[in-house]
Amino acid sequence: ERALFARQEFAPVDGIERIGLRYVDEVRVPHSNGVLDWSDWVISDLLGPRKQVESLGLRLQEQQSVFQFQMPSPGMTFTLRCGIGTGAVVQSSDNLRRPQEPPRDGQFFLIDSDAAWVEPEGKIPEFDPSHILNVSEELHSPIKKMFEELITDKLREEVLNGSD
């Protein structure tokens, strides 16, 4: 709330076109140098046809999927991008310093959650901090729940809770 009022005081904004919350999670798990089986860590619905093509001698190297959901309130959407990657989704820059850079060849599973609102009638409402906060609260609601639905108990117990 303070940031919204400070923004308006510093350089007033006439209206808002979009309100969004985005969480980018790079899931990294302990593994040997062999092939990493992500089905131990995330639900298999996210992993595509990897088992079906093994007989062709193909091994999944990288993968990206995008799912877009309509939320109950008008104008709200939830976009989930997920997949297997190598290196890092977010690189350190002048504006963002990661405390520890991941290895360039390290594999991760991306869970990128983007909940957004646009005015359903295409109008541009005036900048109203109370409205922005209310919408943000509603957008935030499914994000943690979605993350929890997509990961396995093994990830929760062995990685996120810090147990061995």
Q: Would you write up a description of this structure?
A:
By secondary structure, the protein is of the alpha+beta class. It has one domain (2-90, 102-155). It has four helices and four strands; from the N terminus they run αβαβββαα. It has a four-stranded antiparallel sheet. It is elongated and about 55 Å long. The protein starts with a helix and ends with a helix.
Largest sheet: 4 strands, antiparallel
| Class from helix and strand fractions | alpha+beta
- In round numbers, the mean pLDDT is 89
**Cα-based radius of gyration, to the nearest Å:** 19 Å
Question: In a nutshell, what does this entry contain?
Answer:
With 164 residues, this protein is an alpha+beta fold. The protein has 4 helices and 4 strands.
Key words describing this protein structure:
164 residues, alpha+beta, 4 helices, 23% strand, elongated
Topology:
Layout: H1 2-10, E1 19-27, H2 50-53, E2 65-70, E3 76-86, E4 107-117, H3 129-150, H4 153-160
Antiparallel strand pairs: 1-4, 2-3, 3-4
